[in-house]
Hints:
Blueprint: H1 17-29, E1 34-37, H2 48-56, E2 63-68, H3 73-82, E3 87-91, H4 97-104, H5 109-120, E4 126-131, H6 142-146, H7 148-151, E5 155-159, H8 166-169, H9 177-188, E6 192-193, E7 210-213, E8 220-224, E9 239-240, E10 245-247, E11 255-257, H10 258-263, H11 268-279, H12 300-303
Parallel strand pairs: 1-2, 2-3, 3-4, 4-5, 5-8
Antiparallel strand pairs: 6-7, 7-8, 9-10, 10-11
Amino acid sequence: MPAHGVKKLAHEDILSYEEILRDVRALAALGIRKVRLTGGEPLVRRDIVTLVRGLKEIPGIETVAVTTNGVLLGTMLDDLVAAGLDAVNLSLDTLDGGKFFSITRRPLFGSVMESLERLAAERRITVKLNCVPIADVNDDEIPALAAIARDHAVSVRFIELMPIGCARTAGYRGVPMDEVRARLRSAFGALLPVGDGAHGARAVPTGPAAYVRPAGFTGSIGFIDAMEHKFCSTCNRVRLTAEGFLKLCLYSSAGLDTRALLRGGASDERLAATVRNAVWQKPEEHYFENDTASRDRRAMYQVGG
């Protein structure tokens, strides 16, 4: 997170739960089957359990997942699961309290470790851990983080650093995924590929990650390397920001202002048709390696990374 903090949005500028559900109903009618609540931190949104329940009640929506920093998860997990939550991704870049404070600027490492302990024993939902390896920050912990999947039925995913927000402005250097794989092979031996349903408690669609399982591992290790090995040709995702902007590509500023439609009196039919037409404009691929005019200038926490 940036040292100066983040600019908060006015309450009237963000979508209400009713507006979010209406957007998702339109998307579900067009074939969307999975919804992930991310951020920022989704669990700070009041009554988030109500939103999870509402999403699960939409015809066509098969799974609802949350990506969280884990700070508030411990006290909310049972209610979220009871509302129908299918999966949790815990963002965890370090197992060191000092590094945690440096990265997050919050002294909340203990709360996250408590959430990790609960998730490690969880059998009702699919559990994944997301780690972004950064050179000279947490790259020395790659084997230790991966080892969580050795002892528990979770997926530890290493995600390539993308040049968005402070990752670009602060000059951080990501660790190439081929180097991450090499370090893991050195620590654990051969990285044996596994199928989509073989890395969690339930068969939730896995997205862009490629999974492996070293010998003796209970869970699995995943790799998401959008920079080194573009997977744009198979991308089937769109993002809906808190303000209601339907974002078609993480890199691009292209998209649709659904808030204007929702608050302008658009019918459900017009909303669905406009969303359909927008998705046809989804960029063919990202260009993170180039600073082009079409690049979105917002930070990752603003666009639902």
